[in-house]
Fold:
Amino acid sequence: MSKSFERYQRRKLISSYFSVILSIALVLFLLGVLGLLVLNTKKLADHFKEEITVSVFLKDTAKEVEIGQLQKSLALSEYTKSAVFVSKDEAAAEHSAEIGEDFLEFLGYNPLKNSIDINLNADFVSTAQVDSIAQSIASQSFVEEVSFDRPTLDLLTRNVKRVGFGILVASALFTLIAVLLINSSIRLSIYSKRFIIKTMQMVGATKSFIRKPFIWTNIKLGMIGAFLALLGLAGMLFYLNQNFPQLGLLQDTLQLGLVFAGVFIAGVLISLASTYFATQRFLNLRTDDLYY
Structure:
């Protein structure tokens, strides 16, 4: 009889530990996914910003030396990611390929201009900064016009701010939910041992002595849950990198290291804090209150 009761208690304990580990692992996995999303949102936004092209159209009277010097100075500027010279013939060939017919035969001449296409570094892509850069370039006597897609730039700038703010709010909210869920799982686990806690207290055990094994046990559970969450994150990243290599998710090892370390530390700290306050609550309860 006693052996079957011990087996029952052991199964119950293992089931309790398993539910705590599983809840911690799932919550930390989702927290890690959100962390990766937060960090990669900027990378994705920067990618779209750097796709915006500023076209510097040159006068027909511009000399090769002047064009070469301008292209070189633009390429060396801190705001420039790339500066590519596009001749009027190359532009005409590209435009003909886009529309599916040779418009030069119809017009009889090439109306396009030689140009330098500039892609800016993401930190310099805003309406005010691009306007300032365009005005500076347009001051050159052999530059006819500096053009960029202003509506797209305005839309991109507004949406990046909105998305960034939305993700920060979601991150804060989800972090709070993660803490509450892990705390709830640990409190339920300790609740089942509330009579043991009170018995130990009644025979003279100090609060710190009673808390210590609970804290250490749940820290270990938190570490196991965090490890499982990290395995899930690693598997997800590997899958995404295999199928979408252009995202470059595995390139920034420092960033990934910070996310992984953050998930692990969060698992330990949340488990520690939740266990401390849960045990403290039951230590402060009167014996009669344990039944409610």
